[in-house]
Amino acid sequence: MTSARLSEKKPVFVSRIPIRWGDMDAMGHVNNAVFFRYLEQARIEWYSHIGRGENAGLETVVVHCYCTYYAPLAYPGEIEIRTYAGSPGRSSFDIVQEIRRSDTPDTICAIGGSKVVWVDPKTGKSTPLPESIRKLMID
């Protein structure tokens, strides 16, 4: 996914996360696995932002995730994660996220994302996206 193709997606949330010293590895940069934690944190913050309300008792499950790295990150600093939502399906939607350093916002350090399925935790089966969630992605 390139930044240009993000124009096809709807921007839905921006999160800022500090880079912690413990996020770095022996090479002196943020470990590749930590990028997935950053993406997860921003995704959960977006979920909290949109609220559960009428959708209480329903959950999301990540069925696919990826991350492409473009530039290293290192402590100290702060990152900005821009979250975009793709067109929703019956019970799933795509999320694409850009990771940038807050002090150099024109530089994309990584692009990652996930395919998320809306599920009923009682049955473990997919369920149609609630209309209120669908609306957030298409309006």
How would you name the CATH homologous superfamily? Hotdog Thioesterase
Report the count of strand segments.
6
Largest sheet: 6 strands, antiparallel
Protein structure class: alpha+beta
Order of helices and strands: EHEEEEEH
CATH topology: Thiol Ester Dehydrase, Chain A
Task: Give a short summary of the structure.
One of its GO terms (molecular function) is fatty acyl-CoA hydrolase activity. The protein has 139 residues and is α+β, with helices and mostly antiparallel strands.
Describe the structure.
InterPro entries: 4-hydroxybenzoyl-CoA_TE, HotDog_dom_sf. This is Acyl-CoA thioesterase. Belongs to the 4-hydroxybenzoyl-CoA thioesterase family. By secondary structure, this protein is an alpha+beta fold. The chain has a single domain, classed as Thiol Ester Dehydrase, Chain A, CATH 3.10.129. It has helices spanning 32-50, 131-138; strands at 10-19, 59-69, 77-85, 92-101, 108-120, 125-126. A hairpin with a 4-residue loop joins strand 5 (108-120) and strand 6 (125-126). The chain is elongated. It starts with 9 loop residues before the first strand and ends with a helix.
Descriptive terms for the model:
139 residues; alpha+beta; Thiol Ester Dehydrase, Chain A; six-stranded antiparallel β-sheet; 2 helices; 6 strands; 40% strand; Acyl-CoA thioesterase; 4-hydroxybenzoyl-CoA_TE; hydrolase
Topology:
Elements: E1 10-19, H1 32-50, E2 59-69, E3 77-85, E4 92-101, E5 108-120, E6 125-126, H2 131-138
Antiparallel strand pairs: 1-3, 2-5, 3-4, 4-5, 5-6
